[in-house]
Amino acid sequence: MAMNDLPFSTELNLPREPFSGHVRLLLVPLPEGEPPSVDLALEYNGTRSVLALFGAAVNAQMFNRSDDVVSAWRADPPSIEARTFGIELQARVENLPLYAWAHLLALLRKNHDALEPLQSASITAEGAHGELPVGDVVNVVPQDLRADEPPFEWEAVGAEKSRNISLEMLFRDPVEPGVHERVEDDLSVWLQMIILGAFDLEFEEADDLDPLGTVKSTSPYRIECFVPYYTGDMSGFVALENWLRHMHRQGQALEEAGLQ
After folding, report:
1. 68 and 82 in contact (C-beta within 8 Å)?
2. Distance (Å, rounded) from C-alpha 183 to C-alpha 61?
3. Which of 145, 205, 208, 240 is the most buried (most CB within 10 A)?
4. Which long-range contacts (CB under 8 A, 24 or more apart) does 126-130 make?
């Protein structure tokens, strides 16, 4: 995959296999003519929001291609690291594959352009030995939907770039209130990931934001999600498929789902 260089320095000390354990993230703001400071770090609310969005995507199983395990992200509130005045976050993760971090870097790249420039980003997993190049992380991001049969009827002909897309979900039984809330919350995360560039793994410069999509019920059994303009790569549909399979198993059984 062709890839532009990130505009901030990176240090990725991560294992290649799916990881469970503690991870430390340190994101250092880029000062404009002045040294980094506590005041500057406190202004980086968008960066904190990006970290929370990424954690929500992990917990929604968007980066989990395994039917047998559950991914998890539990993070302490971000703090300010005394030496660098960077935004420090300590998290405990479960079954998180290496490729997930590429999506966080893509989010940070767009936020860097649009709102809060970074000087550096460091991600260090407990017990990891050796630094990985960014390209090694990006190159393992899945770009194909799964070949095995899903446990519900799944039609993905609409998985194309740069066009309006509709997702239709039909459940076997009327959607339970708690499931409806979960679907709305998780698809909101997916839609935000789209417009904030999480699935642009060429790390292009940020453009103006596209409109946010919508999620609505059209019957007691059916929920639809509309994406006004999709510009990411196939990894965004991989994330959606991951989520659908886990929703079927852990939320409420689907009869069918389709992209148009």
Report:
1. no
2. 12
3. 240
4. 126/21, 126/22, 126/23, 127/15, 127/21, 128/13, 128/14, 128/15, 128/19, 129/13, 130/13
pTM of the model: 0.96
DSSP string, 83-109: TT--EEEEEEEEEE-TTHHHHHHHHHH
3 state SS of 111:
helix
- Of 201, 31, 25, which is closest to residue 109 (Cα–Cα)? 201
Bridge partners of 155, per DSSP, are: 258
- What are the angstrom distances between the C-alpha of 106 and each of 41, 45, 73? 20, 17, 18
Residues in Cβ contact with 210 at an 8 Å cutoff, skipping those fewer than 6 apart: 194, 195, 228, 229, 231
- 3-class DSSP state of 51: helix
Q: Which residues pair with 163 in a beta bridge?
A: 230
Question: What span, in angstroms and rounded, lies between the C-alpha atoms of 102 and 94?
Answer: 17
- Give the pLDDT of the chain (260 residues) as one tens digit per residue: 456 789 999 999 999 999 999 999 999 999 887 878 999 999 999 999 999 999 999 999 999 999 999 999 999 999 999 999 999 999 999 999 999 999 999 999 999 999 999 999 999 999 988 899 999 999 999 999 999 989 999 998 877 656 789 999 999 999 999 999 999 999 999 999 999 999 999 999 888 777 899 999 999 999 999 999 888 999 999 999 999 999 999 999 999 999 98
How many CB atoms neighbour CB 31 within 10 A? 14
What DSSP state is assigned to residue 132? Answer: B
